[in-house]
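Subject: Major facilitator superfamily (MFS) profile domain-containing protein structure
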Amino acid sequence: MTAPPPPPPPSMEPPSRQPQTHFTIAVDSDHKATEFRLFSISSPHMRAFHLAWLSLFSCFFSTFSIPPLLPIIRQDLHLTDADIGSAGIASFAGSIFSRLTMGPACDLLGPRIASASLSLLTAPVVLSTSLISTPQSFIFLRFLIGFSLANFVSSQFWMSSMFSGSVVGLANGVAAGWANVGSGLTQLVMPLVYSFITSLDVPSVTAWRVAFVLPATFQAVMAVMVLAFGQDLPDGKYKRSRITGSKDKDNFFE
């Protein structure tokens, strides 16, 4: 009777470089995805991708929701050409300022918390569009709403945390490109929403104000989804993963 063959020797490869089985997508030694499956929602890589672009999409939708209704808003608030020009500059300035601060926020908190926090802070600002009554408040509001576009930075940060160098450019490009569609879609949707509200015999001066419930709600819902279903890194929470190496699964409240 022959003796059974000896067991294979243990792998001398470092644990971080041994094949992983708990991901449904190919990953590298840092557990970053090495492939990009556009129509997949596998966790955590592709789920993070879809949450990132949808969250940024909602921010673009909110930021550009005012121009389609500007003729009605202009008449109601008695805006001058100078007021409209100043509001556009204010919105641009707000987006630049907030992007400068979003980078350090992502370094400190991780892309998930930074993105969701900004969206939740600016969603009430979008909703408060329904309360403005002066040109000055309109200009100030455009400045604050512009802050939401800083989520572009957190989106790119998040993609770099989830995808390896071989596909991160593709992930970043698609996420940013799809998100930018929000700035165009709002040109179609907001007038339709306004028309629907006025069809219910709501006065024009009230209808355009009620219409901003849509972008504000959309942005807030996406922020909650990022918190509830997102994950900063392939192995868990941003801070804990970097400091303690813990691979505990992320949750809504942490």
